[in-house]
Design a protein that fits this description.
about 425 residues; mainly alpha; 3 domains; globular
Length: about 425
């Protein structure tokens, strides 16, 4: 199949290196991505022809950030100047004529770029640790993850549920971190004991939790409020369940303590220290944890406590110093010992499993009831599967478990896979 020569996408012709069609020489070769996206789908060609001039500028920004590309890099791939990329993303010039090259360069389906407007978050407004150590690519990917979650994934998820957990995250700005942690536990009706599942707790209070997989040491987790909805993104690459729980509570601290904070101008040391203190107090309440802790550093005892509280030994040692049970000398000795054992650079013993999203598990059940798969979910959003599964890794695990139970008698409930009744009932 050939596209008609009158199609405006092909009037200029493509060079032999990156594209398949030239006005002078016809088809030279067909890169697989072009064949898959254009040639095998006549309906898509008709849609693009009807929607000429409607490429959404914010989706160019989102796709570029997701790919980790600078504007100069994308300009080189597409064959335009960096100034043109700026004009496209600002909505001052139409990018439709270069859509096929954008598809190849940014590795997203053509219809992705023809969708609705999505948020465009400035990476300075995203809360994540070691801000100044992060590269531009890391900061852009963090902003893109929040925008993808808020603008595309979360609305699609909520369409599958008749009821969804309401947002119940109070504004505790101005409170001291420990007082804020105690107040939030009381407001949420929690005891002073260990928290069983932090991700489930956050989701049940309306926090939208997603993941990325980034090996950058400067990226542990990040969060942002978007149109009244709180989003937390955790890093799956860390593979340390206990530290991931602390990261989630750290971001919760930002959500309740720093809702109106300008992260671009605020002192990062102060706000990160406050979020750490909140997470420590929220996970390890003074009234119950401190009486259980030893008076000195005993690794075996702390590892036993770690199994109970599911918090890293380093976080427990820091908590004991903050409440005055450990002296500076005891604290420094404990950290020197852990450094010598490699616990600070590598996962400690009993890192614990990574917590998963119960809502994403339930989404798999809803898809199965409609005869759909997670891959269908991604296709319906005009996203590559890899872009979705990186943000929602539970989909892959849940679908495998669902598929293994499809032949059983009676209705399939995801709750049976988890061994308990879930708090989210669509």
């Amino acid at each position: 199949m050939r596209f008609p020569r009158e199609c405006s996408f092909w009037k200029e012709g493509w060079n032999s290196r990156s594209a398949a069609y030239s006005a002078d020489h016809g088809w030279r070769r067909r890169p697989r991505v072009i064949v898959n996206i254009f040639v095998r789908n006549r309906a898509l060609y008709a849609i693009i022809q009807r929607m000429e001039g409607r490429v959404e500028p914010t989706r160019i920004t989102l796709a570029r950030r997701m790919a980790g590309k600078a504007k100069s890099h994308l300009a080189k791939n597409v064959g335009v100047s960096p100034a043109t990329i700026n004009l496209w993303e600002d909505g001052l010039r139409d990018a439709t004529a270069k859509l096929p090259r954008l598809v190849v360069a940014l590795e997203q389906p053509a219809l992705f770029f023809l969708g609705d407007e999505v948020p465009t978050t400035r990476h300075e407004s995203v809360s994540f640790r070691k801000r100044y150590d992060a590269t531009r690519e890391t900061r852009d990917k963090a902003a893109a993850a929040v925008d993808l979650a808020a603008g595309i994934l979360q609305p699609a998820i909520q369409n599958f549920f008749s009821r969804f957990p309401a947002v119940n995250v109070p504004d505790l700005s101005g409170m001291r971190p420990e007082a804020a942690a105690d107040a939030l536990r009381r407001q949420w009706g929690l005891t002073d004991g260990p928290l069983r599942d932090v991700v489930e707790l956050l989701e049940s209070r309306g926090v939208r939790v997603f993941w990325v997989s980034d090996g950058s040491p400067s990226l542990s987790a990040f969060c942002r409020w978007i149109e009244g909805e709180p989003f937390v993104v955790l890093n799956m690459a860390k593979r340390d369940g206990c530290r991931s729980r602390f990261d989630a509570c750290h971001e919760l601290g930002h959500l309740v303590l720093h809702r109106d904070t300008d992260f671009e101008t605020a002192d990062p040391k102060i706000i990160e220290r406050e979020a750490d203190a909140f997470a420590s107090a929220f996970l390890l309440p003074r009234e119950t944890f401190v009486p259980m802790a030893p008076g000195g550093f005993d690794p075996a005892t702390f590892l036993e406590l770690k199994r109970i509280w599911r918090v890293s030994v380093q976080a427990m040692v820091r908590r004991l110093k903050d409440v005055g049970q450990f002296t500076d000398w005891q604290y420094e000795y404990a950290y020197r010992w852990m450094s010598a054992e490699g616990w600070r650079s590598n996962p400690e013993p009993y890192a614990g499993p990574m917590e998963t999203s119960r809502i994403h598990w339930r989404l798999c059940e809803k898809l199965q009831e409609r005869g759909l798969t997670p891959h269908d979910f991604a296709r319906n959003l005009n996203l590559q599967w890899d872009s979705v599964v990186r943000m929602m890794p539970t989909l892959e695990t849940a679908y495998v478990n669902v598929a293994s139970l499809l032949d059983q008698d009676g209705p399939l409930r995801i709750g049976s896979l988890l061994g308990e009744t879930l708090p989210y009932d669509g």
